[in-house]
Amino acid sequence: MKKIIIANWKMNPQTARQALQLADEVRRGAKSLKNVEAVLAPPFLYIPIISKILSGKSNLRLAAQDIFWEKGGAYTGEISADQLKASGVKLVIVGHSERRALGETNEIVNKKLKAVLGASMRAVLCVGEAERQKEVAFPKIIRDELHEGLTRIKKSLFRNLVVAYEPIWAISTAGRGRADNPQNIYEITTIIRRELYRMVGKRTASKISVLYGGSVDDKNARAFVKDGAVDGLLVGGASLDAKKFIGLLKEVEKIQ
């Protein structure tokens, strides 16, 4: 199974020209990748123009940072699964901590997951605690985000599910984040996998990729994947520098 590396650009860059340049540099740098699936998640505005340069034989996939659960209607400012699919999107990030901080609940996350998976796209469910709790093996908030986010979803749809463990305290927003260490990541993602086994059975859960995100860059990516034993990474700030992001991809590519 290929390692999945997702570049979450968040609300960057500021112009379409910059977005195209960044996407094209990454596209050219990712040509030789065989063991890594690289994914770009730009702002909605840039999805159609980036989709054009990723068509054909590009190794890159296109993702969206969010979605709305309804198929259409009077929902100002929202975007549907069908609209994203028509623009070339293959994967959607759901429940990112920055969305949750704006008021997104587990119930809303559940609706969005159903919309993504029901449209035969892949969904990345983000889970993570606000503060490190050394005395707790598995913070309740993560268990709740998993169970409530995935409730009443058909088991057959889990084949397109990806789970990203992204502790909020580790996110590099405004330079405050501090990356976790591979041993801690290994322990918590192992517990996440066990929880998924209990929820949907080992056979189905074994096909769900578990990623790590939080202050990931080209210098620590390989250690996180190799020693943290995760199936890939969700990358924020480092993905806005084409040289660093390509270096990150190549470091993960080396892992056997």
Automatic annotation (TrEMBL):
Pathway: Carbohydrate degradation; glycolysis; D-glyceraldehyde 3-phosphate from glycerone phosphate: step 1/1; Carbohydrate biosynthesis; gluconeogenesis. It catalyses: D-glyceraldehyde 3-phosphate = dihydroxyacetone phosphate. Its EC number is 5.3.1.1. Keywords: Cytoplasm, Gluconeogenesis, Glycolysis, Isomerase. One of its GO terms (molecular function) is triose-phosphate isomerase activity. One of its GO terms (cellular component) is cytosol. InterPro entries: Aldolase_TIM (IPR013785), TIM_sf (IPR035990), Triosephosphate_isomerase (IPR000652). Its main location: cytoplasm. Signal peptide: none annotated. It is found in: Cytoplasm. One of its GO terms (biological process) is glycolytic process. It is an enzyme of class 5 (isomerase). The keyword NAD does not apply. It holds the Pfam family TIM. Belongs to the triosephosphate isomerase family. Homodimer. This is Triosephosphate isomerase. It comes from Candidatus Giovannonibacteria bacterium GW2011_GWB1_44_23.
